[in-house]
Amino acid sequence: xxxxxxxxxxxxxxxxxxxxxxxxxxxxxxxxxxxxxxxxxxxxxxxxxxxxxxxxxxxxxxxxxxxxxxxxxxxxxxxxxxxxxxxxxxxxxxxxxxxxxxxxxxxxxxxxxxxxxxxxxxxxxxxxxxxxxxxxxxxxxxxxxxxxxxxxxxxxxxxxxxxxxxxxxxxxxxxxxxxxxxxxxxxxxxxxxxxxxxxxxxxxxxxxxxxxxxxxxxxxxxxxxxxxxxxxxxxxxxxxxxxxxxxxxxxxxxxxxxxxxxxxxxxxxxxxxxxxxxxxxxxxxxxxxxxxxxxxxxxxxxxxxxxxxxxxxxxxxxxxxxxxxxxxxxxxxxxxxxxxxxxxxxxxxxxxxxxxxxxxxxxxxxxxxxxxxxxxxxxxxxxxxxxxxxxxxxxxxxxxxxxxxxxxxxxxxxxxxxxxxxxxxxxxxxxxxxxxxxxxxxxxxxxxxxxxxxxxxxxxxxxxxxxxxxxxx
Length: 473
Description:
The protein has two domains: 27-225 and 393-463, no CATH class; 232-384, no CATH class. It is built from 18 helices and 13 strands. It has helices spanning 28-37, 59-65, 75-82, 86-92, 94-101, 147-164, 169-191, 195-200, 205-210, 214-231, 233-240, 273-282, 285-291, 339-342, 350-361, 399-420, 423-430, 435-463; strands at 110-113, 122-126, 132-136, 143-146, 241-244, 247-250, 257-258, 295-302, 314-321, 324-332, 370-373, 379-384, 390-391. Residues 1-14 have low confidence and may be disordered.
């Protein structure tokens, strides 16, 4: 069955790599025709629907395996956050869906994929020029992989979010269709743009506002202003820091913020000097000049998100002067959930994998983005904490807002894929009709049922004591 196999031949690429654009001198029309020819082996309709294979692994076993290397005391918090709803379960179970996506149709075209492209992994943040842009903002799982996998995960997340909001089946399907259509139409636009135009393209705050009603524009502006305020040192410093003598230190707030023991973080023995030096070496030379103005004062573990809970994530406080702090987020980078199915990363350090993928997929990335290897052998990447980060809060959304946000995420995803992949070939494969839209929508709706079944198994496993979950108050 075509849905189970990738295209063989000249479109096949080594696992873990993106196909070189050796024929990009060809006009876009010829590359689109080449993409269209891929439908002969993998029809667009082959992406439709979802049916689990008989040998599908137990999702609970996969989730337990994904805890390997995490801090054991934090794992129950991760599972407690996943228990809140099928939507939070979906956000924390990227490893389960990665295994499922590997059994679906693929055209044979690869891009730098996000790996966890659900709609809450998109949002606003500030560029080095201090402009606010909308883009993918979580790339922990990034890896070269089939572009379809990101589209399917994003669209399924839209349906599952709609169900969480208690929207009708029709409204959920309409939001899914709008999401895929947005990806298709924007990829078509990118397929006709010059390479530099694609690379320079950004989705700015003005672009977002133009898609919204006057009422929503005011709300978004207020959210942006609030995010800027919350990112200022005057706001963050008193929230996270206390003075013990002359040296400022991060406040403990267990179990979500606490200072690690020497066993949890061996680098604490020497004040993380070796680790800071490794991180500094990963920065561009001009950024090192800026970084050298700061001195490290403290590092603490900080629990974040859902999928990342249990990994060694933390925050570091550096200061250049008494009223001049720099907060950096330190996140452990494990192997991508896509790796068993898309191939190993060419980067030996998974922190470098995340940084390289982030710089490739985002229009602009944090200037302090860098990586290191810890004294324990774990891999980490580092970026600024709360750099005007604006995340979606979906609890009060209606169907119109879900549909509009899905379209915006799809635009950002198409832009990210066009930067590393061949937009003309992808656009040629998708075409201009609604055939691909309908197929992905059908997959998303049916996969949302699979997610619901997995969630029920998960809740049952917690209640039966098979796994432990702590639900935070």
